[in-house]
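Re: weekly structure request thread

Next one in the queue (309 aa):
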Amino acid sequence: MKFTIFQHSRQGPRPYNLDRLAYSYSKDSLLLMIADGMGGHRHGEVAAQLAVATLTDAFQRMALPALANPAKFLMSQLHLIHDLIAKVSEEQEMLEAPRTTIVAAVVQHGMLYCAHAGDSRLYHFRDGHLLYRTEDHSIVQSMYNKGIISKDEMLHHPYRHKIFSCLGGDVAPKIAITERQELAEGDTVLLCTDGLWGAVSDEEIKYAMLGASISENVTALLDTAEAADADQGDNMSAIGLQWGGRLDSQLAVSTLQLPPGFSTTIMNPLTHTNLDFNDPSLADDLSDDDIERTIAEIQIALQKTKRNK
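Done, posted below.
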């Protein structure tokens, strides 16, 4: 495989960043994912971090050098993450289960597989044209599909960011698996949260991704979105992928010479938080160390369960 990839997250005007993003690759397989912890529910960052940690860990164990069934891998792992969030909520005695949207993609043998729950999106571009975009699991998308509102009304509807599927919560998620798509040399794939696409149009996204440098494209897109929604914006995160070796870049990756047992994960570092943890109202919030410790404990328990079966 040959590809160039770049990921970044912006906190925006929010006091903290609930987004988590990462990519992993082995000799013959590549995983990209973004989880957007839901701010309307407590501890969304726990759900998002658990999603990223669990999915990348499973990929590194199973993609050696390739996944047996990428679509099945995505579906089963997303359901597992949903169950793990419930377990975290129970063990930590949280008032409500944390929740997160998710969009994840696997590229293997030149084919793109995608799964998502919620309104974090995947875009697939070729030669300046949008070939595919995931359909949001949102109230307004459902209303539009039923002919209740127009496409223009979707843009400003008060329920624009209300979703009906996510990982976590009391209801089993609706997980959409995209029919696999073949990637061509020079194709571009973008994964992003609603904080980004909510601030810029699909046309603006398309034109931003036309440049030769994926890192400059994603950075410029985040700059535009952040400037457009400077006061009321959300966390904004994106992963951009340029497929093939057409473009020469310092960020280009070739896995041709990697050994079959190799795998690695690159997580986007957490952005600075302005949250005041001395605030009494936040006394029961979990720190980043608390989140990591909780996830590690659950993963250890899971491994013990697997060994005992």
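The two ends are 36 Å apart (CA to CA). The first strand starts at residue 2 and ends at 10.
Next request, please.
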